[in-house]
Amino acid sequence: QVQLVESGGGLVQPGGSLRLSCAASGFTLTYSVMNWVRQAPGKGLEWVAEISSGGGRTRYADSVKGRFTISRDNAKNTLFLQMNNLKPEDTAVYYCARATNRGKGTLVTVSS
Fold it and tell me: Is the dihedral of CA 58, 31, 10, 108 positive or negative?
């Protein structure tokens, strides 16, 4: 049974940093394409970042390029999203996703 559990969200001031984690179980992270998506209040889902299986190629939405970094720890079967220079418009619930599976999300609020 695929399970994804996100953590690491919270309240941060503009310009600050957070590191989100996604603990995966029921499958091997190494062999999966993984994504982070987010949903801002009152808006639809927005794709944020992707990491490929095996080779670890990454790609990012233009809105986060240069500020966010997706990575994974294969030994711990865990996905990460390092978020730097956060902006108020990054406020959202962040989800890790594998195909059609998503966790329950973690809330990131960027506010002074």
Answer: positive
